[in-house]
Specification:
Elements (H helix, E strand, L loop, with lengths): L2 H21 L11 E4 L6 E2 L7 E7 L4 H17 L4 E7 L4 H10 L5 E4 L4 H5 L7 E5 L5 E6 L6 H17 L2
Parallel strand pairs: 3-4, 4-5
Antiparallel strand pairs: 1-2, 1-5, 3-6, 6-7
InterPro entries: Redoxin, Thioredoxin-like_sf, Thioredoxin_domain, Thioredoxin_ResA/DsbE_sf
Keywords: Signal
Protein name: Thioredoxin domain-containing protein
Amino acid sequence: MNKPRLVLFYLLLVAIPAVPTAMAAEIGQQAPNCLLKPFEKEDQVFLQQWQGKVVYVDFWASWCPPCLKSFPFLNDLHQRFSDQGLHIVGINVDEKLSDAQDFLARVPAHFDVVVDPDQQCARSFDIQAMPSSFLIDQKGVIRHTHLGFRSGDTQELEAWTQKLLQEKTANP
């Protein structure tokens, strides 16, 4: 390999790992503003349109057993806290819409479900596991992240939700 190619190869090796880190959504950062498609509708929505509320973003897929377990919890959270300013958005990342439809036929969602057809939002949040959850405060800042879902996780997630809702009430 000649010297210019060797230098280019080295630069690519160094630059590639830095790209995902620079784009990753992290605690303390503004949440990425993703363009999403409401489930089974033609219009589009921006994640940022819910700024001013506490937003629970949950990336899920039909093939994910923990996602199946998390939906009853999310429905319960929505029922108890939506009137206090909580908005839950389930972002489906399945390649086939029919897989998501089958999942929702078995476990209906009582919160907004949207589709990330080109996986751009999942890449912006740097999703590493299913489900991946992000709690976003009323200013659009990511305050808590959570990977996976086990029944023992509900207390932690509910405590974070209540904490952010109390901040919302204190700082309308």
